[in-house]
Amino acid sequence: MNARSDIHDRLATSLRAARKARGLSLDAAAKLSGVSRSMVSQIERGESSPTVATLWALTQALQLDFAGLLEGRTAPGIKVIRAGSAPVIQRGGVTIRILSAPENVGRHEVYELVFTPGARLTSDAHNHGCREHLTVLEGQLLVVSGEADEALCQGDVARYPADRAHEIAAEGGAARAILIVQDS
């Protein structure tokens, strides 16, 4: 019984510390891991014996070393997200691959954007002072921010306010770009 309690306590402490160190709420940890909020909470309180699959999902979301979980170690070295593992969103002919770390959501986000011919990515205004940095890797894109617009070709970089309605549109064919969103 004591060994079991000790394991639960160390597991609970490691997961809670990792979540808080990354500034994540229970809801955010649940969303990133796919584990329910109530289960995350129960594990952090030492009230649940999670499955290996649940622990794996949590360690990946919290960027913890699965093997060193009970020692409270974080993964050393280089964190790699393989191309097929990055989260992808499809929106109106645009494939959006999320490249930034989950804990940076809302502060510093990085996306790869792949546009089919004529596709548009339209966004409402973000937080006051938010800016976007767009680098065209292939094709041509039109960027609109408020009343301003600019045509971009391969290699061009545009920096513009994103605290107003804005849009990125493929001009004349398919296109690919990297988008960085920085909140002030």
Average pLDDT: 86
Main beta sheet strand tally, sense and closure: 6 strands, antiparallel
Tell the overall outline: elongated
Q: Tell me the count of domains.
A: 2
Amino- and carboxy-terminal Cα gap? 50 Å
Instruction: Kindly report the name of the CATH homologous superfamily of the largest domain.
Output: Jelly Rolls
Q: Using DSSP, what is the number of strands?
A: 10
Q: Helical proportion?
A: 25-40%
The number of helical runs is 4
Instruction: Classify the fold: give the CATH topology of the largest domain.
Output: Jelly Rolls
Question: What's the order of the H and E elements?
Answer: HHHHEEEEEEEEEE
Can you give keywords for this protein?
184 residues, alpha+beta, 434 Repressor (Amino-terminal Domain), Jelly Rolls, 6-stranded antiparallel β-sheet, 10 strands
Commentary on this structure:
This protein has 184 residues and is an alpha+beta fold. It has 2 domains: 2-71, 434 Repressor (Amino-terminal Domain), CATH 1.10.260.40; 83-182, Jelly Rolls (Sandwich), CATH 2.60.120. It is 26% helix and 31% strand. The protein has 4 helices and 10 strands; from the N terminus they run H-H-H-H-E-E-E-E-E-E-E-E-E-E. The chain has a 6-stranded antiparallel β-sheet with strand order 1-2-3-10-5-8, with no helix packed on it. A 4-stranded antiparallel β-sheet has the order 4-9-6-7, with no helix packed on it. Strand 6 (141-145) and strand 7 (148-152) form a beta hairpin. Helix 2 (26-33) crosses helix 3 (37-44) and helix 2 (26-33) packs across helix 4. The protein is elongated.
